[in-house]
C-alpha cells in the first residue's frame, strides 16, 4: 500500500492501476481550473476534487484537451522509434491526467455533489469494500464505471450463442476476427482434449467446447481473469466441459489441441490490463512455442493466434516467427488469416494508422517435427 501526504496533515492511501509512481503530495480543493491543475500536475502534486462531480468531469475534459496534442504521422524511415515515442507520450500524458483525483470513502462511497453510486463499479475492480478512505484518479474511476457497464452488458459472441462478460482488468474479445479464425480452423473429430493457454475471459476455451472438445483446461495467472472465465463458463453452461487453473502456461499432462493467443507486441506493459497486449521480448510467445510439443498428445496440434502488427511497427523481423518455429522444432501445417475490422484499423487520426491498416491476424496450425 502506498500512502502520500496531504494538506490535511495526514497521509492517505493512493491507488492507481498503472505502474506510475505516486505523486509526492495531494491537495484537497473544491475550486480550480484546468490550467491550475496542469501546473500542480507538472509539479508532481495531485489535486483531490471536493466540489461538484460533474464540474470535475468538465475540468478533466479540459485538462485532457490541453495535454493531448495531435501526433504527427510517424515517418516511415524510423517506424520503431515512432512507436516508442508514441508509447512514451501516452505514458506522460496519462501521468498528468491521473493527477486529478477523488477521495473514495469507506464502503466505496463518493461523497461529492451529484456523484453517482460507484460502489458496484469499484467492487468489480477491488472486491470487498474498503474500511478506510483512499485516493483514486478521476479518469480511472470513470474507466471503472464504463467497464462496469460493459461488464453487465457483455459482448455478444454469435458462435457461442451468448455473451462474454468482462470486468475491468481482463482483455475483452471485442476484436471478433481472431475468434472467427478459431471457428474456421479444421478440428479433427478425434480431438477430445484441449488446453487454452492464457485464457483471459475464457472465450477461446468456450468456443472449443462449443466445437465439441469434451475436456478443455484454460490457464491464467491473473486472478481477475480466472474469476471472469469461471463466471462466463458457468453462465454459458460449459463449466462441466471446461476447467480453469491458476497456472503459468501449461497445466499438467498432455492434450490433443493446445491454443494460445499471446500478447501481440513486444513492449513493456504500463498497467495490468496492458499485459494482454504487450509482452517484453515476446517472452510468453517463446515460452509457449518452446514448451508446447512436450504437452501434445501424439498427432496433436498447437494453434497460435497472433497479429503481424509488430512487423509493421518494425518491432520484430518478418522471419521472426519462422525462426521461433524452427527453434522449437515445430512445423507449420496451415495458416489461416484475416484482416482486422476494429475501429482503429480505419482511423486516419490514429498515430499508428500507417501500421494498423496493413495488419493481418493469423492462426498458425503447428505440429512437432518428427
From TrEMBL:
The keyword NAD does not apply. Gene3D superfamilies: Vaccinia Virus protein VP39. SUPFAM superfamilies: S-adenosyl-L-methionine-dependent methyltransferases. Pfam families: MTS. GO terms for biological process: methylation. GO terms for molecular function: methyltransferase activity. The keyword Lipid biosynthesis does not apply. Residues 180-328 form the Methyltransferase small domain. CDD domains: AdoMet_MTases. Keywords: Methyltransferase, S-adenosyl-L-methionine, Transferase. This is Class I SAM-dependent methyltransferase. It comes from Uruburuella testudinis.
